[in-house]
Design goal:
The protein is α/β, with parallel strands linked by helices. The chain has a single domain, classed as Vaccinia Virus protein VP39 (Rossmann fold), CATH 3.40.50. Helix content is 42%, strand content 22%. The protein contains 10 helices and 8 strands. Strands 1, 2, 3, 4, 5, 6, 7 and 8 form an 8-stranded mixed sheet that branches. Strand 4, helix 6 and strand 5 form a beta-alpha-beta unit. Helix 6 crosses helix 8. The longest helix is centred in the last third of the chain and has 16 residues.
Length: 267
């Protein structure tokens, strides 16, 4: 069993606010638009946003399917749901629930489409969660699941050993840091078919607070300090090094996210 802290434990009010800012960076906005284009929601399709976070994708789904169509966002973290509810307060058919992805509080075949971004890598019982997803999506319905393989991360550093320790420690924040390697097979076994995979790279070439990587440095640092032999001083030195590399016009960060598109079998 994983020793990673649960998502509910990790996404307190402070972390939720940090991540909301990260999700508003141009990098993640572009990723969100790409994923939505791949899922291609249509007018009238009932939509489920799993791990909705601050409601940015929920809002986009609601605008895509129409104001008279049901859209539900779920998250395990109450602070995230509070932000999402405020964001979508004027969308009358949007609702939110605090829910566990392994025990979805919905009827069979309730939704036409579902989207989950950066969710299943946090779930200990992935196969159980995927079966639940298959249960609530109608046969012929479509899903888009986005997850990251953190071993794809490339981050320029003057101290490669320290950089590796930071990333190796960050892997410990989730039960399945390399989930994309097995997700296609798992989805097929759970009841999905026509599974295809697209890669959405995140690439930052400047040290800029309005980029994904710089925004995430606080999250990584907060988690890694005190773990795996990394001290607060080590983390501060890593972050200072990144700034220095940026000042030298040498900043480089790259990370791959993978979009798994599939159809619910049985149509």
């Amino acid at each position: 069993m994983s020793t990673a802290p649960t998502a509910q434990e990790q996404f307190d009010e402070q972390a939720s606010n940090i991540l909301t800012a990260v999700y508003l960076t141009p990098d993640v906005v572009a990723q969100r638009e790409k994923v939505l284009a791949l899922l291609a929601p249509k007018q009238g399709e009932r939509a489920l946003d799993i791990g909705c976070g601050p409601g940015l994708t929920t809002e986009a789904l609601a605008l895509a399917v129409g104001h008279d169509t049901e859209v539900v966002g779920i998250d395990i973290a109450a602070p995230m749901l509070a932000i999402a509810k405020q964001r979508c307060a004027d969308l009358k058919r949007v609702s939110f629930e605090q829910a566990d992805v392994t025990k979805l509080p919905f009827k069979d075949a309730q939704f036409d489409i579902a989207l989950a971004s950066q969710v299943y890598e946090y779930v200990e019982s992935i196969d159980e969660a995927l079966r639940e997803l298959a249960r609530v999506v109608r046969p012929g319905g479509r899903v888009a699941l986005v997850d990251t393989d953190w071993e794809s991360a490339v981050w320029a550093s003057h101290d490669d050993a320290r950089m590796r320790r930071v990333l190796e420690t960050w892997d410990q924040h989730i039960p399945h840091p390399q989930l994309p390697r097995t997700l296609k097979r798992r989805m097929t076994q759970a009841g999905f078919e026509q599974v295809t995979v697209a890669v959405v790279p995140l690439l930052n070439l400047t040290y800029d607070p309005q980029t994904y990587s710089v925004g995430m440095m606080t999250m990584l640092g907060n988690f890694a300090a005190g773990r795996n032999g990394l001290t607060a001083e080590d983390i501060a030195a890593w972050q200072a090094d990144a700034r220095a590399i940026g000042a030298e016009d040498g900043y480089f960060f790259s990370l791959n996210r993978y979009v798994f598109l599939a159809t619910r079998a049985g149509a």
